[in-house]
Amino acid sequence: MKTKLFDYIERDNFVYNLSGVTKLLCFLLLSFAVMLTYDIRSVILILVFSFVMLHISGIKLRQVKLMMYYTLVFLVLNFALTYLFAPQYGVEIYGTKHLLFTFNARYIVTQEQLLYQMTKFFKYAAVIPLGMLFLLTTNPSEFAASLNSIKVSYKLCYAFALTLRYFPDIITEYHEIALAQQSRGLDLSKKEKVSTRVSNTFHIMVPLIFSVLNRVEIISNAMDLRGFGKNKKRTWYAKRPLKTGDIVSVSVCAAVLIGTLLMAAFVNHGRFWNPFVYGWF
Q1: What does the pLDDT read at residue 1?
Q2: What's the rounded Cα separation, in Å, for the pair 109 and 167?
Q3: Taking burial as the number of CB atoms within 10 A of a residue's CB, which of 48, 55, 97, 227 is the most buried?
Q4: What is the spatial distance between Cα 56 and Cα 190, in angstroms, rounded to a whole number?
Q5: Please, are residues 70 and 10 in contact by the beta-carbon 8 Å criterion?
Q6: How many Å is the Cα radius of gyration of the chain?
Q7: What 3 state SS string does the chain have?
Q8: What's the pLDDT tens digit per position in 36-59?
Q9: Could you report the per-residue pLDDT of 103-130, keeping only the tens digit for each?
């Protein structure tokens, strides 16, 4: 059976056995580390680490292939637009100018601009696998229980759990509506023009929106009938206590963030690693 995007499949390995709140904290700590630095060395290390964790988790390429394609398109488009609108921003940041080649007076290619854009490219690329790792390896019910264990309101926790559970359902619903519309003669193939295919997509989105709203109403009515929100506390069937692996994982990610901040403060003398002034090594 084809694996659905964002679908949670239970596995028994180190990543899956971590608590949901541990994976959330690790994701946030590493994301902050990536966002707070423009040192391409640190960013690439975190990128490699995220792909190693994806491999350890046992996530198959077919589960993330579509997201990888969209991510690559976004990264390439961002790279091109950054150069289009700010072709000499790297020179302003690093304070030096090492020319590689010239298109015209405005559009020149420098080592500084190339380093800035490559760093930015890898910054985005490093965060995406971390997000996929969190989404695909976290049981929504267990994640909600873990959040509630650290004093987050159980109503908010339940909303998070429903959101994570709903992603695969929406995607399945979309495909079912698309097949139904195609059986009625709606053409979404590459034979049609792009404008026609985009227009035909609206014939899928409208019933999908109504289906989602109907399902939301059903769920909310069911929760009201069962007295959801009446009590200040609730118990969780899927609650998982923190173990040694959780403490070690959070400690490692916290150390990465602290190390990144120390590098910025004492080695790079700022957020940007400037090899043109302080040397490449």
Answers
A1: 41
A2: 42
A3: 97
A4: 37
A5: no
A6: 23
A7: CCCCCCCCCCCCCCCCCCCHHHHHHHHHHHHHHHHCCECHHHHHHHHHHHHHHHHHHCCCHHHHHHHHHHHHHHHHHHHHHHHHHCCCHHHHHHCCCCEEEECCCCCEEEHHHHHHHHHHHHHHHHHHHHHHHHHHHCCHHHHHHHHHHCCCCHHHHHHHHHHHHHHHHHHHHHHHHHHHHHHCCCCCCCCCCHHHHHHHHHHHHHHHHHHHHHHHHHHHHHHHHCCCCCCCCCCCCCCCCCCHHHHHHHHHHHHHHHHHHHHHHHHCCCCECCHHHHCCC
A8: 999 999 999 999 998 898 888 888
A9: 888 888 889 999 999 999 999 898 888 8
Give the Cβ contact number of residue 148 at 10 Å.
Answer: 22
User: What pLDDT is stored for residue 116 in this prediction?
Assistant: 92
pLDDT in tens, 197-234: 777 777 788 888 888 788 878 887 887 777 777 777 77
Rounded Cα distance between 87 and 82, Å, is: 7
Tokens representing residue 197 in the block: 């295919």
For residue 233, give both structure tokens. Answer: 């506390």
For the chain, how many residues are written?
A: 281
Q: 101 - beta bridge partners?
A: 109
Give the count of beta carbons closer than 10 Å to the beta carbon of residue 131.
14
**CA distances, 261 to each of 120, 233, 254, 267 (Å):** 18, 39, 11, 10
Q: Could you report the per-residue pLDDT of 127-181, keeping only the tens digit for each?
A: 888 888 888 888 887 778 777 777 778 888 787 777 777 777 777 788 888 888 7
19-41 pLDDT per residue, tens: 888 888 899 999 999 999 999 99
With contact defined as beta carbons under 8 Å apart, do 15 and 240 qualify?
no
Instruction: Tokens 């964790």: give the residue.
Output: 53
